[in-house]
C-alpha cells in the first residue's frame, strides 16, 4: 500500500518465480501420482505429492490467486484423505489429475495475462468435495458416526480455503520432510509478505516453531530429504537466452582460435606460440563446458509420459505398463526439443494401436498387462532411442490396403515390397492404420511429422514389427547439432564439409591403378570388396555439369542408413570441428546442404547432407524411398523397390540385363589375352585362370581389340561372360513376367520400357563348375518340388516363373481335383501352394484332405488369398496351412517358400 | 501539415537508382571472399563471413539485365527472420525523403524481372527510383520458386 510501484514490481518478480517453480512442481506431481496409483501404500510418494500441492496452494494464497488457491485446496483435502488411509481408487486419481490439468490451464492464462482468468472451478471442487465426503462415510463404520457428522456439518457451508486450513496445516506439518522446493519461495516471500500479512503466510510462519516438538524422530526422517535438498541448491536456474548467447560467443571464440592457429602456422612467430597454445586449450575446455550446459537427460523429454500412458489406459480400458530405461542419457537441449513431441506421439500410438484390449491379450496367450518400453543409450556418437511394445504388431495386410486406398503406391509396386518395407509406409504423409480413428492418436497426421522432425536433425527412424509380438521403433539421432567433426573436401570448384559420422572410408583411385572407376555410360561404379559401389561426382551432386576427371580422384565412401555410396572429390583438405550454422531461408530450398560453417581461414563453406546425397543417387534403402517424404516431390520420382540393372547386348534380339549386385566387375579385355579352351576361353588374371564363356551362342569373339566381359564371383570362383556391348545401368523394378524359353535366361522383364532378357548366372556357373549347383540353387533333381494350385490361369502363369526363378521346380494344377490327381500319380513333392478360393473343393478343403492322408501329411502348405484377414488366417491354421501369403505378394510368397523348404531340410 | 514521407537509403545498381526503406537497412559493408552456393538462385552471389555472421549475398543485377558483379561492389545489410542478407549495389547514393504519395505503383509495362523486385517507382529529380521490395526479394517464395519452375518470366506476361 505504501509503495505501490515497488510492491508491484516485487509481485511481478514473485509471480514469475512462482510460475516457473509451479510448472516444475506440477510436472513432478504428475509423475508421482502415476507412481502412487501403482503403489497406493507408498506413504513417501503420497507425502511428496501432498507437499507439492500444498506449496502451490500456499503460494497462490499469498499472491492473491483465489481460483488456484481454492482448487489446490480442495485437491489437497482429498490428498490428505489418502494420506490418512482412504483407499486410492482410479477415479480419484483421475479427478486429482483433472484438477491439476485445470491448474495448468490457469497458470498458462496467468502467464499470458498476469491475472487469473474469470470464472470458477466449482465443477471440480464439488467433485473433490464429494469424494472427500464419500470417505467421510467409510471411516464412519470403523470409527464413530459422530466424527463423520461433525466433519460434514463443518464442511458444507465453508468456502474452500478457510475452514479446514488448520487441519491441512497440521497434516502438512506432520508430513515428514519439508519439501526442499517449498522452502525456497517461502523464504523469499516472507519479507514482502509482512505489510499485507494474511492467514496463509502467518500459518506458514508458525511452522518452524510447531516443527520442533515432534523431536528427533522427525529430524531423522528429514535427513535423506535434506541431502537431496543440498543437491538441488547446488544448481541454479539460468535463462536459456543466456546459455544460447554463451554458446554463440564460444563458437566465435573457436573460430577466432582457429584463425589464429592458421596464421601461426603460416608465419610461425615463436613468441606467440606458447600463449596461443594456452588460449587454444582454454578455448577447448570452455567449449566442452558450454556444451555440457546444453546437455540434458532425456528423461526431461519423457517426464510427462507416465501420466499420459496412465490416462490412455483408463480411457481405452487397457492395462499398460510403461518401462523406461536410460533416462539419464544426456543429449543436446536443441535435439531434445525436437524429439519431445515425436516421443509422445509414438508412445500414444503404441498405447492406442499397439497394445490390445486385456481380453484379446489373454486370448492370444499374453499377460493381460501390455508393456511399452522406452529406452535410450549412446552408440557411436549417436543416441539411440527405442520405443517398443508387446502389442499386436503392425498389420501388413491392412497397411497394404491403406496404401492402395490412399493411392500412395500401386498394387504392382506393393507386390514387390516385403512386409518390412510395407511397414515404413506408416511414416507416409496422411497415413493411419487405425480403421477406427480415435482422438488419442489422431488421424495419422503424426508419424510423417515424427519422421520429418527426426530427418531435420539428421537422424534416422526405423520400424520393426512382428505380428502378435509387438512393434519397435528405433530412432538414431546425433548427440548435438551445434558442433560436429567434419571432413573438408575440395571439388566442384570449392570446398565443402562432409559430416564425419557419415564417412566410412576414403579411397584414392587412379586411372591406371588397381582400383579405378569403371564407367557405364553415365554411371560410375567402383568395386569394393566384391561389391559395386555407386559413385557420384561432387559436381553432379551439386547440380553442376560433370567436371573432367584429372586422373586421380578421391572417393569419400559414405553411408546413409543401410546404403553405401561414394562421392568423387578432388581432395580432402583437412578435418575440423565445425560449428554448424543454419542455412538462410533464401537458400533452404537447396536440399544438398544441411548447414553452413565458417572455416579457420574465415571462409564460409556449405555442409553436404549425406541423406540427400543418397537420395540423389537413388540408393536410399527401398523402404525409405517408398515413403513419400516431405521433400520427395523435389527428388523426382523415387525408385520404389528398384534394382540397379546392367543392360547389355549379347547377340541379336532383346537387350539383356543382369542385376548390378551380381556383377563383380566389368572388364574390357584384349582378345589376345584370351586363350581358347574347351567350350570357351581362359583368361589369365593375377596368376589365376578365369574361365570365360560367351553369354550366349550369338556372341562371337572379336578378331582384335577389346572385348567387354562381365566378371562374376561366387566365393573363390570367378567366371567371365563375354558380351557384345554394355548399354547402360538403369534403376527399375525387376518383375520377371515371362518364364525362360532358353537356358541361360531366367525369363523376360520389362526394363526401362523395353522387353529384356534377364541373364541366369546360375546356369553359367553350373555349366562351368559342375559341382557348383550342389551348394547353390540346386539342380532339377535336388530343387524343392512345388505344386501350385490355382483356378485362375492368370495367377498360375504369373507365379510359376517367379517361383522357378527363385530355384524351385513347379508343377501346376487348375483345381483341387487336378491337384489330387497329380499327387496320386506319385513323384516327389515338397510344398503345396493352394489358392483358398476355388470353385468346387477350395484350398482349405484341399489342405485338410492332404493333411489327413498319410502320404501327404508331411508336406508344407502355403495358402494364397486375395485378402488376408484374421478370419482367413485362423481358418487356414485350422485347415493345416503352414503359412499364408497375399496373392499379389510375390516376394512374400518366395520368402514363405524358402522358409518352408529350409525347415523341411532341417527336419 | 506536411505530407507523409518515408526515408530511403538509395543506391545505384548499374545506372538504375534504387531505394530501400532506411528502417530495413542494418549496415553497409564491402563484401569480401564470397563463397558461391551451387544450385542457389541466379540472384544469389553466395555467402560470406561478416564478423562471424554468415551473410547471404543477393546480386540483383540479373533483374536489371546486367552481368553479375565481379568485384568492388558494396552491400546493404538487411535482416529477415533471423537471417542476415546483403543486397549488392554498385555505389551508395544518399538518404532521401520521399513523399509517400509520390511513390507510384509499378507501371504496367515494367519488364518482368524488374517487376519482381520492385515495390513501386518514384520520380526523383529527373530520373526514376525503383523502391526495392525487400520482403519479396528475401522470401524464398518470390524469386527462387519462379526460377525453379524453369522459365525466367511467366507466360502471361
Total discrete domains of chain B: 1
Task: Please report the distance between the alpha carbons of the first and last residues of chain A.
Answer: 92 Å
Rg of chain B over CA atoms, rounded to whole Å, is: 15 Å
Strand content of chain A: 15-25%
Largest sheet of chain B: 5 strands, mixed
How much is the average pLDDT of chain B? 80
CATH fold title of chain B: OB fold (Dihydrolipoamide Acetyltransferase, E2P)
- The CATH superfamily of chain B bears the name CheA-289, Domain 4
Taken as a percent bin, the fraction of beta residues of chain B is 35-45%
Mean pLDDT of chain A: 73
Give the uncertain stretches of chain B in residue-range form.
Answer: 141-157
Layout of SSEs?
The complex is a heterodimer of chains A (907) and B (157).
Chain A: H1 4-38, H2 43-62, H3 66-83, H4 90-113, H5 122-142, H6 145-155, H7 165-174, H8 180-193, H9 199-211, H10 216-233, H11 240-267, H12 270-294, E1 295-297, H13 299-302, H14 305-316, E2 320-325, E3 330-332, H15 333-354, H16 358-363, E4 370-379, E5 382-389, H17 396-405, H18 411-415, H19 419-423, H20 446-456, E6 460-466, E7 470-478, E8 483-491, E9 494-499, E10 503-510, E11 518-520, E12 523-528, E13 531-537, H21 538-541, E14 552-560, E15 563-569, E16 571-579, E17 593-598, E18 604-608, H22 610-617, H23 622-626, E19 643-649, E20 655-659, E21 663-670, E22 674-677, E23 680-685, E24 688-694, E25 706-714, E26 717-722, E27 725-732, E28 736-739, E29 745-751, E30 754-759, H24 761-768, H25 772-775, E31 785-789, H26 793-805, E32 809-813, H27 816-824, E33 831-835, H28 843-852, E34 860-865, H29 870-879, E35 883-886, H30 890-906
Parallel strand pairs in A: 2-4, 9-18, 13-15, 20-30, 24-26, 31-32, 31-33, 33-34, 34-35
Antiparallel strand pairs in A: 1-3, 4-5, 5-7, 6-7, 8-9, 8-16, 10-14, 11-12, 12-13, 14-15, 17-18, 19-20, 19-27, 21-25, 22-23, 23-24, 25-26, 28-29, 29-30
Helix pairs in contact in A: 1-2, 1-4, 1-8, 1-14, 2-3, 2-8, 3-4, 3-5, 4-5, 5-6, 7-9, 11-12, 14-15, 15-20, 28-29
Chain B: E1 5-13, E2 16-21, E3 25-29, E4 44-50, E5 53-59, E6 74-80, E7 83-89, E8 91-99, H1 112-115, E9 118-124, E10 127-132, H2 134-138, H3 140-148
Parallel strand pairs in B: 2-10, 5-7
Antiparallel strand pairs in B: 1-2, 1-8, 3-6, 4-5, 6-7, 9-10
Amino acid at each position: 500500500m505504501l509503495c505501490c510501484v515497488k510492491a508491484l514490481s516485487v509481485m511481478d518478480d514473485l509471480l514469475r518465480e512462482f510460475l516457473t517453480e509451479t510448472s516444475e512442481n506440477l510436472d513432478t506431481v504428475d509423475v508421482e501420482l502415476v507412481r502412487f496409483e501403482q503403489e497406493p501404500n507408498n506413504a513417501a510418494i503420497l507425502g511428496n505429492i501432498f507437499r507439492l500441492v500444498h506449496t502451490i496452494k500456499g503460494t497462490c494464497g499469498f499472491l492473491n490467486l483465489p481460483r488456484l488457491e481454492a482448487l489446490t485446496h480442495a485437491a489437497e483435502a482429498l490428498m490428505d484423505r489418502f494420506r490418512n488411509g482412504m483407499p486410492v481408487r482410479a477415479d480419484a486419481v483421475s479427478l486429482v489429475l483433472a484438477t491439476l490439468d485445470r491448474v495448468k490451464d490457469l497458470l498458462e492464462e496467468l502467464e499470458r495475462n498476469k491475472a487469473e482468468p474469470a470464472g470458477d472451478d466449482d465443477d471440480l471442487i464439488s467433485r473433490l468435495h464429494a469424494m472427500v465426503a464419500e470417505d467421510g462415510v467409510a471411516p464412519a463404520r470403523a470409527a464413530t458416526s459422530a466424527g463423520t457428522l461433525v466433519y460434514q456439518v463443518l464442511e458444507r457451508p465453508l468456502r474452500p480455503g478457510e475452514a479446514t486450513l488448520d487441519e491441512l496445516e497440521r497434516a502438512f506439518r506432520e508430513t515428514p520432510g519439508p519439501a526442499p522446493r517449498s522452502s525456497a519461495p517461502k523464504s523469499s516471500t516472507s519479507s514482502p509478505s509482512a505489510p499485507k500479512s494474511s492467514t496463509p503466510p502467518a500459518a506458514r510462519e508458525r511452522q518452524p516453531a510447531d516443527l520442533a516438538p515432534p523431536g528427533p524422530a522427525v529430524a531423522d526422517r528429514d535427513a535423506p530429504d535434506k541431502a537431496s535438498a543440498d543437491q538441488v541448491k547446488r544448481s541454479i536456474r539460468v535463462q536459456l537466452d543466456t546459455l544460447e548467447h554463451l554458446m554463440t560467443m564460444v563458437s566465435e571464440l573457436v573460430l577466432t582460435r582457429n584463425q589464429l592457429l592458421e596464421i601461426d602456422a603460416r608465419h610461425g612467430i615463436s613468441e606467440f606460440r606458447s600463449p596461443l597454445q594456452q588460449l587454444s586449450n582454454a578455448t577447448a575446455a570452455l567449449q566442452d563446458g558450454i556444451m555440457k550446459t546444453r546437455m540434458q537427460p532425456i528423461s526431461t523429454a519423457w517426464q510427462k509420459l507416465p501420466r499420459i500412458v496412465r490416462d490412455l489406459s483408463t480411457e481405452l480400458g487397457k492395462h499398460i505398463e510403461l518401462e523406461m530405461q536410460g533416462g539419464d542419457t544426456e543429449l543436446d537441449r536443441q535435439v531434445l526439443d525436437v524429439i519431445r513431441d515425436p516421443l509422445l506421439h509414438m508412445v500414444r500410438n503404441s498405447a492406442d494401436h499397439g497394445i490390445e484390449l486385456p481380453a484379446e491379450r489373454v486370448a492370444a496367450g499374453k499377460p493381460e498387462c501390455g508393456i511399452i518400453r522406452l529406452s535410450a543409450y549412446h552408440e557411436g556418437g549417436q543416441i539411440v532411442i527405442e520405443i517398443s511394445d508387446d502389442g499386436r504388431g503392425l498389420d501388413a495386410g491392412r497397411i497394404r490396403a491403406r496404401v492402395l486406398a490412399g493411392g500412395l503406391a500401386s498394387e504392382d509396386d506393393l507386390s514387390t515390397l516385403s512386409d518390412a518395407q510395407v511397414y515404413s509406409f506408416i511414416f507416409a504423409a496422411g497415413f493411419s492404420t487405425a480403421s477406427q480413428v480415435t482422438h488419442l492418436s489422431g488421424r495419422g497426421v503424426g508419424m510423417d511429422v515424427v519422421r520429418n522432425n527426426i530427418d531435420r536433425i539428421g537422424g534416422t527412424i526405423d520400424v520393426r514389427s512382428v505380428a502378435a509380438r509387438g512393434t519397435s521403433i528405433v530412432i538414431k539421432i546425433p548427440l548435438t547439432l551445434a558442433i560436429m567433426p567434419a571432413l573438408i573436401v575440395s571439388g566442384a570448384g570449392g570446398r565443402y564439409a562432409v559430416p564425419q559420422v557419415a564417412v566410412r572410408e576414403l579411397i584414392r583411385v587412379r586411372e591406371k591403378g588397381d582400383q579405378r572407376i569403371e564407367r557405364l555410360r553415365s554411371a560410375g561404379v567402383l568395386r569394393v570388396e566384391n561389391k559395386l559401389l555407386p559413385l557420384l561426382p561432387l559436381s553432379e551432386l551439386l547440380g553442376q555439369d560433370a567436371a573432367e576427371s584429372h586422373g586421380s580422384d578421391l572417393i569419400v565412401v559414405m553411408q546413409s542408413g543401410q546404403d553405401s555410396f561414394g562421392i568423387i572429390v578432388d581432395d580432402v583438405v583437412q578435418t575440423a570441428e565445425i560449428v554448424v550454422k543454419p542455412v538462410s531461408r533464401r537458400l533452404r530450398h537447396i536440399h544438398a546442404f544441411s548447414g553452413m560453417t565458417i572455416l579457420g581461414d574465415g571462409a564460409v563453406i556449405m555442409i553436404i547432407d549425406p541423406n540427400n546425397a543418397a537420395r540423389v543417387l537413388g540408393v536410399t534403402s527401398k523402404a525409405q524411398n517408398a515413403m513419400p517424404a516431405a521433400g520427395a516431390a523435389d527428388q523426382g520420382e523415387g525408385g520404389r523397390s528398384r534394382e540397379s540393372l546392367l543392360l547389355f547386348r549379347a547377340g541379336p534380339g532383346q537387350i539383356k540385363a543382369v542385376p548390378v549386385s551380381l556383377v563383380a566387375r566389368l572388364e574390357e579385355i584384349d582378345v589376345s589375352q584370351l586363350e581358347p579352351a574347351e567350350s570357351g576361353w581362359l583368361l589369365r588374371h593375377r596368376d589365376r585362370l578365369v574361365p570365360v564363356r560367351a553369354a550366349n551362342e550369338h556372341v562371337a569373339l572379336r578378331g582384335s581389340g577389346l572385348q567387354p566381359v562381365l566378371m562374376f564371383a561366387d566365393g573363390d570362383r570367378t567366371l567371365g561372360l563375354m558380351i557384345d556391348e554394355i548399354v547402360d545401368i538403369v534403376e527399375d523394378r525387376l518383375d520377371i513376367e515371362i518364364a525362360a524359353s532358353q537356358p541361360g535366361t531366367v525369363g523376360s522383364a520389362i526394363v526401362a520400357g523395353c522387353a529384356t532378357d534377364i541373364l541366369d548366372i546360375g546356369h553359367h556357373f553350373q555349366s562351368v563348375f559342375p559341382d557348383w549347383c550342389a551348394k547353390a540353387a540346386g539342380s532339377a533333381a535336388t530343387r524343392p518340388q512345388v505344386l501350385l494350385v490355382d483356378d485362375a490361369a492368370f495367377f498360375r502363369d504369373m507365379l510359376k516363373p517367379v517361383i522357378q526363378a527363385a530355384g524351385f521346380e513347379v508343377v501346376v494344377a487348375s483345381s483341387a481335383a487336378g491337384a489330387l490327381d497329380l499327387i496320386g500319380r506319385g513323384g516327389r513333392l515338397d510344398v503345396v501352394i493352394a489358392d483358398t478360393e476355388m470353385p468346387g473343393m477350395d484350398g482349405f478343403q484341399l489342405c485338410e484332405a492332404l493333411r489327413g492322408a498319410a502320404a501327404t501329411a508331411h508336406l508344407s502348405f502355403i495358402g494364397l488369398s486375395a485378402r488376408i484377414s484374421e478370419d482367413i488366417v485362423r481358418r487356414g491354421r485350422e485347415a493345416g496351412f503352414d503359412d499364408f501369403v497375399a496373392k499379389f505378394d510375390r516376394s512374400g510368397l518366395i520368402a514363405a517358400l524358402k522358409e518352408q523348404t529350409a525347415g523341411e531340410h532341417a527336419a | 501539415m506536411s505530407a507523409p514521407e518515408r526515408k530511403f537509403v538509395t543506391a545505384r545498381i548499374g545506372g538504375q537508382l534504387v531505394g530501400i526503406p532506411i528502417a530495413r537497412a542494418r549496415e553497409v559493408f564491402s563484401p569480401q571472399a564470397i563463397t558461391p552456393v551451387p544450385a542457389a538462385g541466379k540472384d544469389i552471389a553466395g555467402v560470406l563471413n561478416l564478423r562471424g555472421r554468415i551473410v547471404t549475398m543477393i546480386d540483383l543485377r540479373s533483374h536489371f539485365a546486367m552481368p553479375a558483379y565481379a568485384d568492388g561492389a558494396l552491400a546493404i545489410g538487411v535482416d529477415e527472420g533471423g537471417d542476415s542478407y546483403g543486397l549488392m549495389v554498385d555505389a551508395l547514393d544518399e538518404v532521401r525523403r520521399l513523399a509517400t504519395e509520390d511513390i507510384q505503383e509499378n507501371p504496367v509495362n515494367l519488364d518482368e524481372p524488374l517487376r519482381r523486385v520492385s515495390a513501386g517507382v518514384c520520380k526523383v529529380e529527373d530520373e526514376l527510383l525503383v523502391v526495392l521490395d525487400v520482403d519479396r526479394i528475401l522470401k524464398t517464395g518470390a524469386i527462387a520458386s519462379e526460377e525453379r519452375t524453369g522459365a525466367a518470366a511467366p507466360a502471361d506476361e
